[in-house]
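We were asked to recover a plausible sequence for a given structure. The inputs and outputs are reproduced exactly as logged, with field labels preserved.

PROBLEM: sequence recovery
POSITIONS: 90
GIVEN STRUCTURE:
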């Protein structure tokens, strides 16, 4: 059974789309839009709750950049080594 809050929200969406776009939508489509809106709000709250890590001084920033560069250095060197082995076999 539908609650009064859901019915009110459904009527608000129906009125909004009718006034703004001149479209009368069925309940299933409006339910989809309401659920997507609720999920977007929930995801935004979760993203806002994630703590952001910011370097406090230059050395932390340097080591962070060094870690990122080291990852790419390993990937590029492994790829070049594999290409070298493939070309050597051919």
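RECOVERED SEQUENCE:
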């Amino acid at each position: 059974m539908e609650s009064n809050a859901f019915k009110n929200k459904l009527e608000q969406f129906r009125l909004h789309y009718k006034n703004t776009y001149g479209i009368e939508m069925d309940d299933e489509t409006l339910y989809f839009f309401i659920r997507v809106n609720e999920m977007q709000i929930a995801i935004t709250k979760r993203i806002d709750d994630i703590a952001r890590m910011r370097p406090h001084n230059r050395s932390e920033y340097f080591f962070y950049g060094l870690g990122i560069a080291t990852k790419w250095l390993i990937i590029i060197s492994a790829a070049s080594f594999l290409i070298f082995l493939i070309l050597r076999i051919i």
